[in-house]
C-alpha cells in the first residue's frame, strides 16, 4: 500500500489526538499541520511543523501531499469542518479516515471516506457513518444508526439502534439517544442529555429528558 502523505488541518486538542493515532500508522506520514492562529506557525507538534493556514493546501498538494484530515472538533464547528473538508477536496487532496486500533467496527457497518473512529469507540451492525464524521473516544453507535456528513458524536455518547443524526449535528459528551429517534440537521444535544423524542433541525436540547433550550440560526 502506498504511503499516505497527510495534511492535518488544525493544530489544537483534537488534532493532537489524531496526530498520535496517525503516527502509529506505518502507512501514513503527516507532512504538515495548518492553523489559522499565527502564533502557532513555526512551532511543531510531535515533530510535525505548523507551517501556516489553509492557503497552504494547494502548495502542499503540488509538493506531493495526497490526503487530508480535518483536525477541528469543537461543538458548533460543523460548518467550519464541512467548509475545510470541501476546500481540501477541491485542491485535489483525498480525505483520509482514522480508525483507532481499539475501535470496534462491525463488518456490516458502512464507513464513508474521512471518518474518525477514536479509541474504544464502537460502530455496530448495519450502521452507516458518512463523510467527515467524528465518533469520539468511547462513543457507541448502535446497529442501523445513520450518521449524516460532518456529525460529531462526543466522547462516551451513546446512540441506541436505528438513531438518525442529521448533517452537522453534535451529540454532546455522555449524551444518550433512545432507539429510532431522529436528531435534526445542525442540532446540538447537550452534554449528559437523554433524548427520548425527535429533535427538529437547528435546535439545542439539554437535560433529562432532553428539552429544547433554544433554536440555532440555520447553518
Ligand atoms: O473533548 C474532546 C475529547 N476533544 C475536544 C474536541 C472534540 O474539540 C477538545 O477538547 C476541544 O474542545 C476541541 O478540540 P479542537 O477543535 O482542536 O479545539 P482547539 O483545541 O481550540 O483547537 C482548534 C484549533 O483549530 C485552534 O488552534 C484554531 O486556531 C484552529 N482553527 C480554527 N479554525 C483552524 C481553523 N485551523 C485551520 N487550519 N483552519 C480553520 O479554519
Q: What's the short version?
A:
The chain has 2 domains: 4-96, 3-Layer(aba) Sandwich (Rossmann fold), CATH 3.40.50.20; 99-209, Hexapeptide repeat proteins (UDP N-Acetylglucosamine Acyltransferase, domain 1), CATH 2.160.10. Helices cover 14% and strands 32% of the residues.
Tell me the count of domains: 2
Span from first to last CA?
39 Å
Strand order of the biggest β-sheet: 7-10-13-16-19-22-24-25
Low-confidence stretches: none
The major pleated sheet works out as: 8 strands, mixed
Please write the string of helix (H) and strand (E) elements.
EHEEEHEHEEEEEEEEEEEEEEEEEEEE
Features:
single chain, 219 residues, alpha/beta, Rossmann fold, UDP N-Acetylglucosamine Acyltransferase, domain 1, eight-stranded mixed β-sheet, 25 strands, 32% strand, binds GDP-N-acetylperosamine
Could you describe the 3D structure shown?
The chain is globular. The chain has three helices and 25 strands. α3 links the parallel β5 (67-70) and β6 (94-95). The strands form four sheets. It has an eight-stranded mixed beta sheet, covered by helices on one side. It has a six-stranded mixed beta sheet with strand order 3-4-2-1-5-6. The chain has two domains: 4-96, Rossmann fold, CATH 3.40.50; 99-209, UDP N-Acetylglucosamine Acyltransferase, domain 1 (3 Solenoid), CATH 2.160.10.10. 14% of the residues lie in helices and 32% in strands.
List the helices and strands and how they pair.
Elements: E1 4-9, H1 13-23, E2 28-34, E3 44-45, E4 48-52, H2 57-62, E5 67-70, H3 78-90, E6 94-95, E7 98-99, E8 104-105, E9 110-111, E10 116-117, E11 122-123, E12 128-129, E13 134-135, E14 140-141, E15 146-147, E16 152-153, E17 158-159, E18 164-165, E19 170-171, E20 176-177, E21 182-183, E22 188-189, E23 194-195, E24 203-206, E25 211-215
Parallel strand pairs: 1-2, 1-5, 2-4, 5-6, 7-10, 8-11, 9-12, 10-13, 11-14, 12-15, 13-16, 14-17, 15-18, 16-19, 17-20, 18-21, 19-22, 20-23, 22-24
Antiparallel strand pairs: 3-4, 24-25
The chain binds GDP-N-acetylperosamine.
The site of GDP-N-acetylperosamine has 21 residues, from helix 1 and helix 3.
